[in-house]
Design a protein that fits this description.
- It contains five helices and no strands.
- By secondary structure, it is mainly α.
- It has a single domain, classed as Fumarase/aspartase (C-terminal domain) (Ribonucleotide Reductase Protein R1, domain 1, Orthogonal Bundle).
- Helix 1 runs antiparallel to helix 2.
Length: about 80
């Protein structure tokens, strides 16, 4: 799991949509589909997004190990 950097497409897409970046899903799909994604590829993608620097820093700090998505919300509803 720690080497599965493509899992970070979910939070990146959410932020892209929040900042109304067009074709968020398609851009991430093009970057991730059928490719081995690593930290460098994810960080280059984030760096090229039109986002405020503080938002980019938050995304740069995400890793497959520390990203839990909505799991804490789901667990509370069980």
């Amino acid at each position: 799991m720690n080497n599965n950097w493509s899992i970070l497409a979910e939070p990146i897409q959410t932020i892209m949509k929040t900042y109304r970046i067009k074709n968020s899903y398609e851009k991430l799909k093009d970057m991730t589909r059928g490719k081995k994604i690593n930290k460098e590829i994810i960080h280059n993608f984030i760096n090229n997004l039109n986002l405020p620097n503080d938002v980019k820093v938050k995304l740069f700090n995400l890793t497959p190990k520390n990203y839990i998505g909505k799991s804490s919300v789901i667990v509370k509803n069980i």
